[in-house]
Amino acid sequence: MGIKKRELPLVSSNLSTMAGRDTQLTQKLTLAGIHVNRSLLLRFAESFNRCDVTIHTVPLQAGQSNQNRKINACVLPLNEIAVGWLKKSSWFLPRRTMIYGIGGLKELTRFVDLGINVLLETSSYLSIQAAVAATQPLLSRGIGMCTRVPIAMPVKIEAEGRVLAGITKNVGSGGMAVKLFRNVAIPQNVALSFVLPGAGLLSLSASPRWYSGRLVGLRFQPSVHGKTLSQWVHEYSLLGCGGQRPSPD
User: Fold this and answer.
1) What is the DSSP letter of 222?
2) Domain 149-235 annotated CATH 3.30.1330.40
3) Using an 8 Å Cβ cutoff, are 72 and 139 in contact?
4) pLDDT per position as a tens digit, 132-150
5) pTM of the model
6) CATH number listed for the domain at residues 6-141
7) 44 φ, ψ to 5°?
């Protein structure tokens, strides 16, 4: 039996006025929730509504079919049942469907090749707001050649005999942003190792460009992986755009 899409109410009927805008909410996206409760989907809907985006939510459980053929994003706990169900879903398109995964480092490492765009270690309202803020602009305008792809994956940083670790927030052809597990400064030249979903293990040299607490921006040094990174970003050019296909290079 198909699950009908349900449009959740806006946070306020005067949302556009509250945000200082005169325009109506026109952009519409569909968010599937796999094995999550409706209150979590409501938090996502409220957060997107604050960005002038109307969200249709589709709560799903394993074994249920779904008639929607264009789902822009999904949120799910990172476990075998939910991930297995996602992979079998006809609407799921790798590198097209935005994935919000709920879990920690252990779960992220286990499902790294799934291509989890945002890792939520908690389902709190603040965590969801941060996840939406990091992805809504991309869902609205798409990924350009210079834009970084939101992606969560473990990364190892070797720096002057020390080994540090973190989780990426985004990756582009020229660099990445990484949230370190410890608030430490790193030297100007470091070696990175990470598994890029769909591209395999990469080892690159990089240098820090900026810090914001435990978040650090790293610029890649020129390497033989430049073409691989550019192609990987291009493959994500329609992230969140349902069944569309990217144009050839």
Assistant:
1) P
2) no
3) yes
4) 999 988 877 766 655 789 9
5) 0.84
6) 3.40.50.2300
7) -65, -45
